[in-house]
Design brief:
CATH architecture of the largest domain: 3-Layer(aba) Sandwich
Strand content: 5-15%
Distance between the termini: 48 Å
Shape: elongated
Membrane topology: Multi-pass membrane protein
Keywords: ATP-binding, Membrane, Nucleotide-binding, Transmembrane, Transmembrane helix, Transport
Bound molecules: adenosine-5'-triphosphate
Subcellular location: Membrane; Plastid, Chloroplast
Helix content: 40-55%
CATH superfamily of the largest domain: P-loop containing nucleotide triphosphate hydrolases
Number of strands: 10
CATH class of the largest domain: Alpha Beta
Pfam families: ABC2_membrane (PF01061), ABC_tran (PF00005)
Family: Belongs to the ABC transporter superfamily. ABCG family. Eye pigment precursor importer (TC 3.A.1.204) subfamily.
Radius of gyration: 31 Å
CATH topology of the largest domain: Rossmann fold
Length: 653
């Protein structure tokens, strides 16, 4: 027990935020709103601690949550869309109302479910609460206030709140334990915690979400089976819990799960709420077991609020409004049928939305919003510095690359197979006329096709992008730290691929200049990978990215000075010759190979290597300059990649 207390103390000491935590005395002076929370929390805490042998109880206690009341007033969101006018048949541009003056309040210890039919506005409302809607985008109009303990939400919101999105975005090669360890290392300031304390925090969250049994199971991907859907969902929640957020926002936490898994997750969320977390989740159609967990319920349809209040009062409310819920039926199913305007039998949405404001429940909401909040929270930003972030992200990126078969192993095998074929095809080249052709075509193939194969990594970069987006939107780290870490940690794998490829190509064929060949291939692959990063950051789907990458590389191959020598390239394509990094890569391979060849045997056209270079407009082109240009491309493309992430990938829509 003493050990458990020490563990809890350590947990509290590593709290990421400093809040004014209400004392018992302060709590007793709180408004009538608060005792409901504190008593409930206390009872729940005591119940959990009574069975103190359970690891879960201690873990819950160690999750010391600071109370935050989240409220929103009159959130209205219009989007400009074009549609066909049903009367005239002409297309017209209209302002579509996605959210129509939505208000609500959730207090610590409460779990709010935002329900409604598909397209009702649930995700938009959650995004609006979380500040994930960009009000400055063209064609959008957004108004209304979101308040944290009565104060306008500001940029410290990401320190108090965590958002768990619907799609899983986790790095696939890591186990639950490793994923949580990285989350703790990134989110908990190292200046205020020891490594041991961060590990303890991670372990506690693992206990809280019941993930102990799969502690050593990997997330999994197309190559390897890993966690189940329910476990993935819980891990997605767990990584955001590691910094003890006071507010937890979840978009469809049960989507795609069977009813047992859904019930299990909602049970965990309900526990978290009872411990003081303010929980808001969207949910499409909760089964009755899940419905039982909700304290508050909000029903949306066509962006309008049909009900906001205690879940337990909703059946009575709709009965009063003329829609009695049939006995023995799941209230959530009944409400969804009322709100779903796609099918027959729905309620009069406008009448319900207008009527709500005049009913006692609507007036209680308005009164709750007007009342001052008694508990205070003063979050201030406390994050790790650039170097600490760089160190952790580099560590994570290194092992992610090394263990992700799609990023390293599969590519290494592809390169080994292809380069072995090249080696055997061009075995022991001599100095005859046909060998001149063989050397040139081989170097073109290496410069063009080995670079082209970097397209294969794109789908994995798209998966990585989703992880980055989630983490950045939740304020995990700075973009430059992420870009630099991923860039630096891609280098060892690319060097191994380049070295193995060079060994398999240069040694069997007897090409010249092993060292320069290796450096040229390595830098070309680094530039190619940087280009793929840029492509991955701009395309909506990996298939479009592969098509785009293939098209650009195909064009660069055409322009690199082999298919047509530089002087013969038409003027309208000559820019392609200059911008393609393939040009510099191919030229460096050629100069490295031919500059040292003093003669050819029986070759009337080319007396020596220099004559070949002259024919290809490559004479007097120092290799080092081309290598510097390729390195410049790699760095420049990484800078473009970082700028795109910084400016366009803020997690707002
Ligand atoms: N930027 C936008 N431009 C046009 N329409 C939009 C935009 N954002 C949201 N919408 C529309 O607003 C409506 C609400 O979308 P939202 O994703 O919030 O619904 P939802 O209730 O979460 O649905 P689901 O349960 O299917 O996820 C939909 O009809 C959607 O097409």
């Amino acid at each position: 027990m003493a050990e458990a207390h020490a563990r809890m103390q350590a947990e509290l000491a590593t709290s990421n935020l400093s809040y004014s935590i209400p004392t018992n005395e302060a709590q007793s002076q709180m408004s009538p709103e608060i005792p409901q929370y504190t008593q409930m929390q206390e009872v729940h805490r005591n119940n959990l601690l009574r069975g103190a042998s359970s690891a879960n109880s201690l873990a819950y206690k160690a999750l010391h949550i600071n109370p935050v009341t989240l409220s929103w007033k009159d959130l209205t969101y219009d989007v400009r869309v074009s549609r066909k006018n049903p009367q005239t048949g002409q297309s017209e541009v209209i302002d579509k109302r996605i959210l129509d003056s939505i208000s609500g309040i959730v207090r610590p210890g409460e779990m709010l479910a935002i329900c409604g039919p598909s397209g009702g506005g649930k995700t938009t409302l959650l995004d609006a609460i979380a500040g994930r809607i960009d009000p400055n985008r063209k064609g959008r109009k957004f108004s209304g206030d979101v308040l944290v303990n009565g104060y306008p939400r500001d940029d410290t919101f990401s320190m108090v709140a965590s958002y768990v999105q619907q799609e899983y975005a986790l790095q696939t090669p890591f186990t639950v334990k490793e994923t949580m360890a990285y989350a703790a290392d990134l989110l908990i300031p190292h200046s205020e915690s020891t490594r041991e304390e961060r590990r303890m925090r991670a372990e506690n969250v693992i206990h809280v979400l019941g993930l102990d049994s799969c502690n050593n199971t990997i997330v999994g991907d197309v190559f390897r089976k890993g966690l189940s859907g329910g476990q993935l969902r819980r891990l997605s929640i767990a990584v955001e819990l590691v910094r003890n957020p006071s507010i937890l926002l979840l978009d469809e936490p049960t989507s795609g799960l069977d009813s047992a898994a859904a019930e299990n997750i909602m049970g965990h969320l309900s526990h978290l709420a009872k411990m003081g977390t303010t929980v808001v989740c969207t949910i499409h159609q909760p089964p009755s077991e899940v419905w039982a967990n909700f304290d508050k319920f909000c029903l949306l349809s066509q962006g309008k609020c049909l009900y906001f209040g205690a879940a337990s009062d909703s059946v009575d409310y709709f009965g009063r409004m003329g829609y009695p819920c049939p006995g023995l039926s799941n209230p959530a199913d009944f409400f969804l049928r009322l709100a779903n305007t796609d099918f027959e039998g729905h309620a009069d949405i406008q009448a319900l939305a207008t009527g709500f404001k005049t009913q006692p429940e609507g007036m209680a909401l308005a009164a709750g919003l007007a009342r001052p909040i008694d508990h205070q929270v003063h979050p201030h930003k406390k994050t790790n510095g650039f170097l600490v972030q760089l160190m952790i992200l580099s560590h994570r990126a290194f092992f992610n690359n090394a263990r992700n078969p799609g990023i390293f192993l599969v590519r290494l095998i592809m390169y080994i197979m292809l380069c072995a074929m090249i080696g055997f095809m061009f075995w022991d080249l001599q100095l005859g006329p046909s060998d001149i052709n063989s050397r040139i075509t081989m170097l073109f193939y290496v410069a063009a096709f080995l670079v082209f194969m970097s397209v294969a990594v794109l789908p994995f970069f798209i998966v990585e992008r989703a992880v980055f987006l989630r983490e950045r939107a939740n304020g995990w780290y700075m973009v430059p730290a992420y870009v630099l870490a991923t860039f630096l940690m891609s280098l060892p794998g690319l060097f191994i691929i380049s070295l193995v490829s060079t060994l398999l190509v240069v040694l069997p064929s007897g090409l010249n200049g092993f060292g320069v060949f290796l450096v040229d291939l390595f830098l070309s692959l680094v530039a190619a990978e940087a280009f793929m990063c840029v492509v991955a950051s701009v395309v909506p789907h990996y298939i479009i990215g592969i098509a785009l990458g293939a098209a650009v590389y195909g064009f660069f191959m055409l322009c690199e000075g082999f298919m047509k020598i530089k002087d013969d390239i038409p003027d309208y394509f000559i820019w392609g010759y200059y911008i393609a990094f393939h040009t510099y890569s191919f030229r460096a391979f050629m100069v490295n190979e031919f500059e040292g060849i003093k003669y050819f045997v029986n070759s009337p056209q080319f007396a020596d290597g220099k004559a070949v270079l002259k024919f290809y407009n490559m004479e007097d082109k120092p290799v080092w300059k081309d290598l510097v240009v390729i390195a410049g491309y790699a760095i420049g493309l990484q800078l473009i990649f970082g700028t795109i992430l910084q400016v366009f990938h803020k997690g707002k829509r």
